[in-house]
Amino acid sequence: MKKYHLELDLYKKAGRATVGEQQRAEILKILYREAEIMVFDEPTAVLTPQEIDGLLEIMQELKKDGKTIIFITHKMAEIEKVVDNATVLRLGEVVGTFDMKKTNVSQLAEAMVGRKIVEIRNKYDTVGEKVVLEMKNINVSKHTGTTGLKDFNLKIHEGEVVAIAGVEGNGQQEIANVITGMIKPDSGQVILNNNDITRASIAKRYKKYKISHIPEDRHKHGLVLDNNVIENMVLQNVSSKQFSKGGFLKNDKIQSYAQGIISKFDVRGTQSGFAFARQLSGGNQQKAIVGRELTREHDLIVIYQPTRGLDVGSIEYIHSQILENKKSGAATLLISYELSEVMSLADRIVVVNSGNTIGVVNGKEAVREKLGLMMMSSSAEKQEVKK
C-alpha cells in the first residue's frame, strides 16, 4: 500500500466498503501478485484524481519493469498519458489500432463514437430564486465513530446544479443518504419545498416529495438485478395511475414507457427490455438508471457519479440531459469525483473535507488547480469564492 500510495482500511468488512474502496482493493490484489500480464478494466472509474495520477505512475513503472498491461478505459486523458497503442472497439467490432505518438485524443474519440464529440458546458442561466432543498446544521456520525457530517449546511435553488467536490470519503455519501432518506441525521433538518422531510421515509420522498436518485452503487441501490429492464424502469412508480388501474397493471403502457427510455438513452443488450438487469454491462446498467431517474417527474435529483464506466459519447449525451433537466427548473445535486465533470456542469461547487464545507466556488470561476488545493485543505482553512 505504501509503495503504490493507495490508502485502504484493511480491517473494514468488504460489505461496508464504498465502491471506491472496493476498487482500490482489487487494484492492490493485482499489483501484489506481480503477474507478467496485467489487465486493468476501468480501474480509475471511482478513484480520486490523486489516486488516478498515482495509478498511472504505477503503470509507467510496471511498463519499465517489462510488464505487459492491457488497459481498458474510456478516459482520453489517461490514454494520452500512458498508452503506447490503442485499439478502438465500437459495437463489438475493431475500428482500428492507433499509435498514440501519432494520434491525438480528438481523433481517438471520434473513432470511438463515429462522430465528432462536442463538449457540453453549463451556460449558467435558468437559476431561480426559489430554494428547493435546504440542509440545516446536519450532523451525522459514521459507524466507525468518526464524523460523517458536522454542522453541514446547503441550499439548492430551482434550475440550479450544485456539485459536491472532495476526495472520496469526506462526507459525500452521507450528504446523499441524508437527502434520500437512506440514513437519518443525528441532528439538523432537511427541508424540501418548505416541507420538513428529515424523518420522512424513502418511499415518501420518492413519491410525494418527488426526489429522484442516481445512486453511487448501481447494484445495491439502483436496480433489482433479477428483474427485467422494463420492470426496473418503473420501480416505485408501478402502482401509480399512469401504470395501474383497479389493481391491474397497464402492461402496454409500462412496456412503451420503458422502451422509450431504453431507446432515448441508448441502453444496449436489453432484448427490447426483457433481459434481466444483471445481464447488462455496467455501462448499460448505468444508462438505464440515469434514464429512469431523469425521465420520471421530480423537483430534486441527487446524482452520484452519473457517468462512471461510460464511453465519451454516452458521457456527452448524459451531460446534455442533466443540463436540459436544469432548464426544466429541477434542482440538481451532483456528486462526482471527476473534476472535469464538476466544472462543466455546476453553477456552484461546494468543496468538502472531513464532513465540513471548505469553500463555495462559482462555477464560472472554477479552476482545477484551486479546487484540488481546496479539497486537500482543512476546515481551519475555509474559504469562499463567489462572484
Automatic annotation (TrEMBL):
Q: What's one GO MF term for it?
A: ATP hydrolysis activity
Residue ranges occupied by any ABC transporter domain in the UniProt entry? 133-379
Please name the Gene3D superfamilies in this protein's record: P-loop containing nucleotide triphosphate hydrolases
What keywords is this UniProt entry annotated with?
ATP-binding, Nucleotide-binding
Q: Please give the PANTHER family that the UniProt record associates with this protein.
A: CARBOHYDRATE TRANSPORT ATP-BINDING PROTEIN MG119-RELATED (PTHR43790), GUANOSINE IMPORT ATP-BINDING PROTEIN NUPO (PTHR43790:SF4)
Protein name per the record? ABC transporter domain-containing protein
Native organism: Zophobas morio
